[in-house]
Design goal:
CATH class of chain A: Alpha Beta
Strand content of chain B: 5-15%
Helix content of chain A: 40-55%
Number of strands of chain B: 19
Shape of chain A: elongated
Largest sheet of chain B: 6 strands, mixed
CATH topology of the largest domain in chain B: Rossmann fold
Largest interface: A-B, 27 and 24 residues
Largest sheet of chain A: 5 strands, mixed
Oligomer: heterodimer
Shape of chain B: globular
CATH class of the largest domain in chain B: Alpha Beta
Structural class of chain A: alpha+beta
Strand order of the largest sheet of chain A: 2-4-5-7-6
CATH superfamily of the largest domain in chain B: P-loop containing nucleotide triphosphate hydrolases
Radius of gyration of chain B: 29 Å
Number of helices of chain B: 22
Chain lengths: 207, 500
């Protein structure tokens, strides 16, 4: 597959993956919104009572602010990932956004994504942004919830600089296969990977 | 006042902290748990009127929690709060007993809805809690007011009486003759706020139309020929108390119209009167008729039926209360032994066999009369089969198929004997007697009244004297208990009571 065709194909595949990730993030968005509204309601109702000391509303202001930060991060990630990116991307920045989108902390299933270390400085790859996202999101979603929504546990992400490549390790404690429908597109764009019994290592060629 | 308790089950601390603060500010006592299993554990050991549960929670999700609550019959009202509202999950939650369902995010509008829902859910919890307490209180109970019975069917009746008595709702009591409909009416009266007011019972079937109308609404002086004084009717006399209309479906339809108006306006007008008189009454009605048929046949106005049947109490026949027969028989035996100064200790096995196998078409009244007759007739320390089984039922058939009329008897006497025997064979059903004999129901009643007014001959009346108390005479048709104090109620002769 020519590189341009792979990039176009990646754009389509990415939109499908984004749709799936957004569906999963909806719960997180609503929870954060809920946290903001409920805590604001406490502040509003207590502020209306003259005898309520300011100290009684402070924890709720903090909680509302915290939920607003969570919501902001989610919305920023969604807005950034919603734009098509055919230019080479920074794997570190993309990973943070993808993890924010996929990390819907759902204690009910204990399915979440945590990032161990992404501070590797410049992590630019020559692979187009849409492909990088696709390469990260597709196995991550498989790893945490599976195709039919069944919970599969927690995934840890680790970013490393290795010679001419930027390596992302997705450690799940169980095999993390690269979905077949994206494999060819990723390979055509220059992304490689290796699977082991409990993790997937993605290798992006440095720019 | 005791604070209502609410349990919040959600794994989002930012939400539960805020939500519990809102609810505490609203005056509730709130506990928070972070997963469904903890919610279940908490609800097992403590009582919460409402549980607010997230649909998605660790360990046990909202739907699984609802299932557990239902299976373990844990009393609480669950409101499901979720960020993943779909029609399916909402339907599932409601099917599994959720009180309601609210979708996240809880913005100001939804929080207001939640705040409005909680008192309603708590009300429902309180009502159900009272019902549960009542059910457990009634469990094992053998007596309720003047009613006797420990069967499941009677306990259900007690439960309905207990629930409905404090309200002012009209009650319609359905049941065969002799099942104790008036006793239920009395229990409703005595358990209500009107207990200090009068209880006024009127048998609508026993009185001709004009007299019934007069009894119900009273009359002014000069209303009709011979009315030299004004007279208050049952509605006025029962004001502040309860009026019991027995055999309500026998009431002529034009009186039904007046009754309906009185129920709707709480006002009556005496016969020949021009002014409306305000009355404050609760109506309890009873019938042994098939009301649907009576409505279709035009004998009962449908609008009156719906006015009277706000609550229906269906009294089971004795044959469906096998558990109660022994209890009742022993109780009647003790009562009549004492009243007759006899030391009868019990029933012989053969007597029990007959008592338990007989189908008692005349219900409790028939059993009571049978035991009373047996106590009177018995010369032993125990009641034997020959004491308890009525002569006409011995040796096979329940009623003799033939009637012997001596030569020389008048046609009137023959007719009276025929009416009485047929009346007895129908267990005191005047309508059926009329149908069997090709007479009108009024003719049957007139014949019975003739006998009880002393115009009859000296030949002994068989079963009607036992079974037909409620049809016997105008004096029995109208029974007023002026102001029902326990002492006065207890001093009444058993024979003045209908049923048991």
């Amino acid at each position: 597959m020519p590189a341009s065709a792979a990039a176009a194909d990646a754009g389509v595949l990415w939109l499908a993956a984004l749709q799936r990730a957004l569906g999963r993030a909806a719960h997180d968005v609503k929870d954060a919104l809920n946290g903001v509204s409920v805590n604001l309601e406490v502040i509003r109702s207590r502020a209306a009572r003259a005898e309520a000391p300011a100290a009684t509303v402070a924890p709720f202001a903090d909680a509302a602010a915290q939920q607003l930060d969570r919501l902001t991060a989610l919305l920023e990630a969604v807005l950034a990932l919603g734009r098509s990116e055919r230019e080479p991307a920074d794997v570190g920045i993309t990973l943070r956004r993808v993890v924010t989108l996929c990390s819907a902390s759902n204690a009910a299933t204990d399915a979440r994504v945590v990032v161990r270390d992404v501070s590797v400085g410049d992590a630019h790859t020559r692979v187009p942004g849409d492909v990088v996202r696709l390469a990260l999101v597709s196995p991550l979603l498989e790893a945490v919830v599976g195709r039919r929504g069944e919970p599969r546990g927690q995934v840890e992400c680790e970013l490393a600089n290795e010679a001419d490549a930027i390596v992302v390790r997705l450690h799940a404690g169980h095999p993390v296969p690269m979905p077949l429908e994206v494999a060819e597109t990723l390979r055509a764009a220059g992304v490689t990977w290796s699977e082991s019994v409990d993790e997937l290592s993605l290798v992006f060629p440095r720019a | 006042m005791k604070q209502a308790k609410i349990l919040i089950a959600d794994d989002e601390a930012a939400i539960t902290t805020g939500l519990s603060a809102i609810l505490e500010d609203a005056g509730y006592a709130v506990e928070v748990v972070a997963d469904g299993q903890k919610a279940l554990d908490t609800l097992i050991v403590d009582r919460y009127g409402v549980v607010l549960a997230d649909l998605k929670m660790p360990k046990l999700d909202g739907l699984a929690l609802l299932r557990e609550l239902q299976q373990r019959q844990i009393p609480t009202e669950a409101i499901i709060i979720t960020g993943q509202a779909t029609v399916d999950s909402a339907v599932q939650a409601m099917q599994q007993g959720a009180y309601d369902y609210i979708e996240k995010p809880l913005n100001a509008e939804k929080l207001n809805r939640l705040k409005a829902l909680i008192p309603k859910a708590l009300d429902k919890y309180e009502v159900q809690q009272k019902n549960r307490e009542l059910a457990s209180k009634l469990e094992g109970l053998t007596h309720y007011g003047e009613l006797t019975g420990q069967s499941e069917a009677m306990r259900s009746v007690y439960q309905v009486i207990e629930a409905v008595a404090p309200s002012s709702a009209s009650v319609l009591i359905l049941g065969e003759s002799g099942t104790g409909k008036e006793l239920v009416a009395r229990a409703l009266h005595h358990k209500s706020d009107r207990a200090k007011g009068p209880f006024f019972a009127l048998n609508c079937a026993a009185l001709p139309k004009e007299i019934l109308e007069n009894e119900l609404f009273g009359h002014e002086k000069g209303a009709f020929t011979g009315s030299t004084n004004e007279k208050a009717g049952a509605f006025e006399m029962a004001s502040g108390g309860t009026i019991f209309l027995d055999e309500m479906a026998e009431m002529p339809t034009d009186i039904q119209v007046k009754l309906l108006r009185a129920i709707e306006t709480r006002q009556i007008r005496r016969l020949g009167g021009k002014r409306e008189i305000n009355v404050d009454i609760r109506i309890v009605a009873a019938t042994n008729k098939n009301l649907q048929k009576a409505i279709v046949d035009g004998e009962l106005r449908e609008d009156l039926y719906y006015r009277l049947a706000v609550v229906e109490i269906d009294l089971p026949p004795l044959r469906e209360r096998a558990d109660d027969i022994q209890l009742l028989a022993n109780e009647f035996l003790a009562r009549f032994s004492q009243q007759n100064g006899k030391a009868i200790t019990g029933f012989e096995d053969a007597a029990w066999e007959w008592i338990m196998s007989y189908h008692w078409p005349g219900n409790v009244r028939e059993l009571k009369n049978a035991v009373e007759r047996a106590v009177i007739m018995s010369r032993n320390a125990t009641i034997g089969p020959n004491d308890i089984i009525p002569r006409h039922l011995r040796g096979g058939g329940e009623m003799p198929a033939a009637l012997t009329i001596p030569v020389g008897a008048t046609a009137a006497e023959a007719r009276r004997q025929l009416v009485l025997r047929t009346f007895a064979s129908t267990s005191g059903d005047a309508a059926r007697t009329g149908k069997v004999l090709g007479l009108s129901e009024e003719d049957v009643r007139a014949e019975l009244l003739t006998l009880f007014n002393g115009a009859g001959d000296a030949s002994p009346a068989p079963a009607p004297a036992d079974n037909g108390a409620e049809l016997s005479a105008p004096r029995a048709a109208r029974r007023q208990e002026p102001v029902a104090t326990p002492a006065r109620a207890a001093s009444k002769k058993p024979s003045s009571k209908k049923g048991r």
